[in-house]
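Appendix B. Raw example, untouched.
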Amino acid sequence: MNCKRTVMAAMVALTFSAYAAQIGSQAPDFHGTDSNGKTESLDQYRGKFVVLEWHNHDCPYTVKHYESGNMQSLQKQWTAKGVVWFTVISSAPGQQGYVDAGQENAYLRKMGALPTAAILDPKGDIGHMYDARTTPNMYVIDPSGKLIYAGAIDDHPTTEVSDIKASKNYVSAALAEAMSGQAVQTPVTRPYGCSVKYLR
C-alpha cells in the first residue's frame, strides 16, 4: 500500500486521553531487544531523559528526516547532552519497513544514524504500549519516568525536505524546556506520517 495514501488515516482526529502512555503520568516500562542483541528497558535509564522515535525506513515522511540528515542531527545533538534516544521499529514481518538486526545495523551505518539503540519490535508490543500511530511518532520521557511529550516531530506534516528549516521541532522544544526546569508548552500534538505497520 502506498504510504502517502495512508497518511490521512494516520492523521484522523485522536482522543489523546486514549494514549496508553498518558502525558504527566509514568511512561510504561518496556523490554525490547536492540539490533545488537542487547535487552533495553525504560527503567534502566531512570534519571535520564529518553526519546522514543518510531521508524519505518520506507516511509517517505521518515525518508524526509533521514535523507536530509535532520534526524541524525537531532540524535547527535541530544545524546551529546545525555539524552537516551531509541529508534523503535514496530513493522511486522512482511510489512513495509520490517528489518532484521543485520539490515537495521547496515541502515544505521549507511545513514550515519546515531540513536542510543534501535529496538526491534516486530510483534508491536512496545508500539501498542505507547499507542504509536505513525512513522515518525515521537515521545519524550523525563528523568523521573514521566511522559512529557507525545506526537509529531515538527509542525510541517509534509514529505518536503525544504520545510524542515522553517519547522518548529516539538521534540527539541520539549527537551530544551524540560532541561531548563520549565513546563513543556506543547506536550501533545497530532502525529503525522505513515501508519505503523503492525501485525494484521
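End of appendix B.
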